[in-house]
Specification:
CATH superfamily: MFS general substrate transporter like domains
Number of strands: 0
Number of helices: 20
Distance between the termini: 25 Å
Strand content: under 5%
Helix content: over 70%
Mean pLDDT: 83
Order of helices and strands: HHHHHHHHHHHHHHHHHHHH
CATH architecture: Up-down Bundle
CATH class: Mainly Alpha
CATH topology: Growth Hormone, Chain: A
Low-confidence stretches: 191-196, 392-399
């Protein structure tokens, strides 16, 4: 393993984290333009992403298995090339059926990143894993933030097809660049030293996994539903604050997720300094009143509520990942995180259907955010049942 390989693995892993969150969020802005051009209702168009969202989750375990058994670098090349080509397919689509196929392709290839890309980064590092993973986590948030601004800008300047074409070409070019680096021997799978793991009992392991299965699912529902609905909510409630066109709405979404992304660093600091359990519980319970506020406000108060509720949602991730890594057997870390991402992204279709059904039935989103406030409260109460910290020796773990 060389220093060059370490640097390039960090670069391409961070690029990949940006791209997956970009490509799994940009359709929520593009759909606002399709409503007018295709003359189809919002709930029908947003449901076209349901299959893609499902594949992001379902593909995680087989992708991780192939990364372990075949090649992590090879899977990353497939990730970049496949997702780029699928986006270009979407740009060329003229019917909902064609767009459905392209979005499904984006979801399938997007499923490669989390179980493969983060593990690849860890294997290519011997020290400062927490720092590298923190940097990587910020790039994921940059992807969500950029999705709104970039897609909105491209839609306004060149139309919705450009919002698929341009990112698709950039992503595919990144795959070709990684392939070139592999061919030159500059990048390899890597085999760094394994991080230390805190001791745990079998009963603690079972207890933590049972609770985390529930809390991770609930957190994912909140995040996925909020990410899906916010562009439309802003379009309905911000009025002149967002200006005309899609760009202003996309910029507001970018502001929310860009600022909230920094919360992963703050959340990681709290998780390093304080016991994980109260940090995790607090991040959950603070979301509930903010979600209730977002249910019924407009203008600047809506933007502020959205920013804070997303901030607390992502701030919980470092503590959650540290809990999972701490209580999972070292030899099964990949499987544990693969299972997390199956659960996390597998919740996407349910969240999308929830958003679509509430929008169809009520014409608004009050009851969506009210329901999500209840979900956050339930998650906080479930986290109360986690065991107390018995050691400050925490295992290094990926941030989403």
């Amino acid at each position: 393993m060389t220093t060059r390989s370490q640097r390039l693995s960090l670069i391409f892993s961070c690029l990949g984290h940006t791209y997956i969150h970009f490509f799994t969020a940009f359709y929520f802005v593009i759909v606002l333009a399709l409503e007018g051009e295709w003359g189809l209702p919002y709930h029908e168009l947003i449901e076209l992403w349901t299959l893609g969202a499902l594949l992001v989750g379902l593909g995680a375990l087989p992708a991780g298995w192939l990364g372990d058994r075949w090649s992590a670098v090879g899977m990353m090349v497939l990730f970049f090339l496949g997702m780029g080509v699928a986006s270009i397919w979407c740009a060329m689509s003229g019917t909902p059926g064609g767009l459905l196929i392209g979005l499904a392709g984006i979801g399938l290839f997007a499923s490669i990143y989390h179980p493969v890309g983060i593990a690849w980064l860890v294997r290519n590092s011997d020290a400062s894993r927490g720092k590298l993973l923190g940097i990587n986590g910020i790039f994921g948030s940059i992807g969500v933030a950029a999705a709104g601004a970039v897609a909105g800008g491209l839609v306004d300047v060149a139309g919705w097809r450009a919002a698929f074409w341009v990112p698709g070409l950039v992503c595919a070019a990144s795959g070709l660049a990684l392939l070139y680096c592999v061919a030159r021997g500059w990048v390899r799978d890597g085999a760094g030293t394994a991080p230390e793991q805190a001791p745990q009992t079998a009963s603690d392991m079972m207890r933590v996994f049972a609770i985390l299965l529930l809390t991770m699912f609930l957190a994912a529902i909140i995040y996925q539903a909020t990410q899906t609905a916010l562009p439309k909510v802003f379009a309905l409630r911000l009025g002149s604050l967002a200006g005309e066109g899609v760009l202003g709405i996309g910029a507001m979404v970018a502001l929310v997720y860009g600022v909230a992304g920094v919360a992963q660093v703050a959340g990681g600091h709290l998780a390093d300094k304080y016991p994980l359990k109260p940090v995790y519980i607090g991040a959950y319970l603070l979301q509930a009143p903010l979600l209730l506020l977002a249910a019924d406000v407009a203008g600047i108060p809506l933007v502020a509520a959205a920013l804070l509720m997303v901030t607390f949602n992502v701030a919980a991730l470092p503590a959650e990942n540290m809990l999972l890594a701490r209580y999972a057997p070292q030899k099964h870390h990949g499987l544990a995180f693969g299972a997390k991402f199956v659960l996390y992204f597998g919740s996407g279709p349910l969240a999308i259907l929830l958003v679509a059904r509430v929008a169809e039935a009520t014409g608004g989103f009050f009851w969506l955010f009210a329901a999500l406030a209840g979900v956050a409260t339930l998650g906080g109460l479930a986290a109360v049942m986690l065991p107390k910290d018995r050691s400050r020796a925490m295992a290094a773990s990926p941030a989403e």
